[in-house]
Amino acid sequence: MSAGPEILLHGSADDVAEALAARLASRLAELQRDTPTPQVALTGGRIATKAYQRLGLDGRSSAVDWSRVALWWGDERFVAADDGDRNARQALTALSPLPLNLEQVHPMPAAGDGLELDEAAEAYDAELGDVRFDICLLGMGPDGHVASLFPEHPSSHAEGRVIPVRSSPKPPPERISLTLEVINQSAEVWFCVTGADKAAAARLALSGAGPIQVPAAGVQGRDRTLWLIDRAAAAELPPNLI
Ligand SMILES: O=C1O[C@H](COP(=O)(O)O)[C@@H](O)[C@H](O)[C@H]1O
Fold first, then answer.
1. pTM
2. I need a labelling partner for 114 at 20 to 30 A (CA). Which of 24, 148, 192, 209 fits?
3. How crowded is residue 43: how many other Cβ atoms within 10 Å of its Cβ?
4. pLDDT in tens, 79-90
5. Strands 162-165, 175-178: parallel, antiparallel or unpaired by DSSP?
6. Which ligand 1 atom lies nearest to the CA of residue 76?
7. Is ipTM strictly over 0.90?
8. Distance (Å) of CA 104 to CA 42, 66, 78, 128, 211
9. Is the CB of 230 under 6 A from ligand 1?
């Protein structure tokens, strides 16, 4: 059963990225002792991408068998596959030095792949099937959004597991997102949150706000919910949480 969120405080955004990369490598190696292919949902965002770059550089020398890691995405911008805005493109470029098994890499469909937005979300739902993530990584926007679930927006209270998102408050307007239903089936959820512009949202997410107003507040892993956070983003947290 999940305990409350665990706050892991770091000095700077770079420290969070380094810590995320190191934690991911060590947890994956640990999981691989008992699990043939750990299932990981990746996030987009600047800090996560830095962590992927670190893993791309150092990951080969870790104990992880990268051919036995399945990669999924928590959300995606519905743009062309070669668009630099794609979360998957950014992550896979960074991770390209690793010997991943491409059959275990599951990017969300891109615009121009032959599917409309709704069909693309349905196709990803079917591909996901009954997979539950061992680790789900999440960023958080300054407005408290997670994946592409935005506050007070239809995405924050949509039904289903994988949803099409239109009129996203953050560009690009069309996206695909997992819902909290799927995210919260993950054994472990790891937030990576940095910067002073996230401080107010972090405080709200960790002090009982509603998930429609602050989607990050509705996230809870089955076993663990970690917040890898820098001092700037943690500046408004109640002292008892740190
Ligand atoms: O649009 C998105 O933004 C969030 C947060 O990004 P960050 O750069 O502020 O960390 C990210 O979690 C999400 O995957 C992405 O699509």
1. 0.97
2. 148
3. 24
4. 999 999 999 999
5. antiparallel
6. 16
7. yes
8. 13, 10, 21, 11, 31
9. no
